[in-house]
Design goal:
The chain is α+β, with helices and mostly antiparallel strands and 165 residues long. The chain has a single domain, classed as START domain (Alpha-D-Glucose-1,6-Bisphosphate, Chain A, domain 4). The protein is built from three helices and seven strands. Strands 1-7-6-5-4-3-2 form a seven-stranded antiparallel sheet. Helix 1 crosses helix 2.
Length: 165
Amino acid sequence: MTDNKWASFKVTGDYNIDIRSLYEAWTKPEGLEKWFLRKANFYTVPRRTREPEEFIMKEDTYEWYWYGYDDSVFEKGQVLEANGTDFLKFSFSGDSIVSVSIYSRNGVSIVELTQDNIPEESDPSKNLYIQCQVGWTFFLANLKSVLEGGTDLRNKKLEVSSNFK
């Protein structure tokens, strides 16, 4: 078996906001809905739905819904790690794994996102390496815009979505 050079990528963003606020944006349902998702449902192991302001925890499962898509398009996965301060890991599309590290460097906060275990795909339209990297790049830019007092860059109008079949 050959080494798949398309199995992993890393994207980073710098933010003029504290590490705690960034961590909350990634680890609370209401935080994720401000910049990333239309709806973020997280479920505890006994299948209780987490409250919007509640921190997610390791072993929670999730259902995520995006603007621009109806409710038939969603992502399911599991929180693999959430350390309560600066690191999150979760399962994602195609059995890949996303890790989010948040740290400070040169006076700014950094979000470093790595997506690993991306499956090889012969159909370019299903290539998670490209599609996810483009998506995460946009959402990290939107995170910066929203948290630093700017505009939410997401298209929230299904009727102008290019995702109709």
